[in-house]
Amino acid sequence: MRLIIFGPPGAGKGTQASRISSRHGLLHISTGDMLRAAVREGTQLGRLAKSYMDKGELVPDDVVFGIIKDRITKADSKDGFMLDGFPRTIPQAKALDRMLGEEGLKIGAVISIEVDDEEVVKRISGRRVCEKCGAMYHIIFDPPKNSGYCDKCDGKLYQRDDDSEDVVRNRLRVYRKQTEPLKEYYEKTGILKVVRGTGTVEEVFSEIERILEKLN
Predict the structure, then answer these.
(1) What domains lie within the chain, and their CATH numbers?
(2) Which one of 25, 31, 39, 182 counts the least CB within 10 Å of its CB?
(3) Residue 10 vs residues 127, 137, 212: alpha-carbon distances, Å
(4) What SS3 class is residue 145?
(5) Residues of the chain whose pLDDT is less than 70?
């Protein structure tokens, strides 16, 4: 099984992808996680990626595609994988189709998690991260017991640059303009599956499971 999961930032893609990965044994490939790791390590790619991410803009196609291509050609992806955060544009989608086609492979389903813009802003701008252990919190949905400090290690919590409200709104504008056309692209191939992302984590996952059951 080879899947793509996408939706606006803050739609819950990472959470649902982790559940799908655990249930079905699929390799979960998160572009965002790979890019943020490069930023933390201060690599040349990381510095380049940060200059775009801090403004809520997309990292150039050639940079992202190079990372993805290297990852999905590794041995641990031969039995299937799930892409989270890629592709984000039609050119990326076409490049992915060509690359997989050369190996006689194709994407089985594209799951689009739908969430409105104001809900996205509330979800993302309220996120906080521990500077010591990396634990995640939310000032509304999952606040720490001691405001501003991690429950696990007492480290100070901070807001990532790309989680500020201004950056989030710009990320949404970029998404609507550049990424949303992917729905039409994949709808034409018959593999687009739309899921509402405003229910509980369990409700959204149940809807996704119903879709995946039909693929097996």
Answers:
(1) 2-115+165-213 (3.40.50.300)
(2) 25
(3) 10, 14, 22
(4) coil
(5) 216
Residue 160 designated active-site:
yes
Q: Which of 2, 50, 128, 171 is catalytic?
A: 171
Catalytic residue list contains 13: yes
pLDDT, tens digit, 9 for 90 and up, residues 118-150:
999 999 999 999 999 999 999 998 999 999 999
Question: Could you say which of 88, 123, 128, 193 is catalytic?
Answer: 88
pLDDT in tens, 51-62: 888 887 878 877
| Residues paired with 127 in a beta bridge | 138
**What does the block give as tokens for 146?**
């001691």
Q: Can you tell me whether residue 104 is helix, strand or coil?
A: coil
Phi, psi of 157, rounded to the nearest 5 degrees? -90, 145
Burial 176-190 (b: 16+ CB within 10 A, else e): eebbeebbebbeeee
Phi-psi region at 27: left, alpha or beta (left = phi > 0; alpha = psi -120 to 50): beta
> What letter would DSSP give residue 173?
H
| Whether residue 171 lies in the annotated active site | yes
Q: Is 36 a catalytic residue?
A: no
